[in-house]
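Changelog entry: the Chemotaxis protein CheX record was regenerated in this release. Current contents:
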Amino acid sequence: MDANVINPFIHATSNVLETMAFVSCKAGAPYLKNDDRATGDVTGIIGLTGETNGTIAVTFDEGSILRVVSNMFGEEIVELSHEVSDAVGEIINMISGQARREMEEHGRVFQASIPSVVSGRGHAITHYSDGPKIAIPFTTEGGEFTIEVCLEY
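Regenerated structure tokens:
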């Protein structure tokens, strides 16, 4: 597990949620994920190409994403909707952009695809590379979410 790859995603995630939604989050210990089952209810996925290929995903449980989106929109959001899905796509896009900028400082250059969003309890996350899936769990006051980084090496 290369900290120069994982840390930019931890930093970007914390920064995006604090800046865009005024939500503090705490990262847990990264671990190797061995299945495709989502840990939450709505997932944003974005592909990466460049130095290597891979995908990153952010999966929110309902409580955490409703808190994040409510703060972003400045009004209480009480159920998952198309607007929530759109916000998740924007969040993964911003996380990807900030993480890629930090990785560029270490000489690692990546381009990102257009994000896609999948929702529903128990949905699957398909990573389009054979690399290891590194999952980083986060906790917030509203609930939990997980970032998954899967890059070929």
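The chain has a mean pLDDT of 94.
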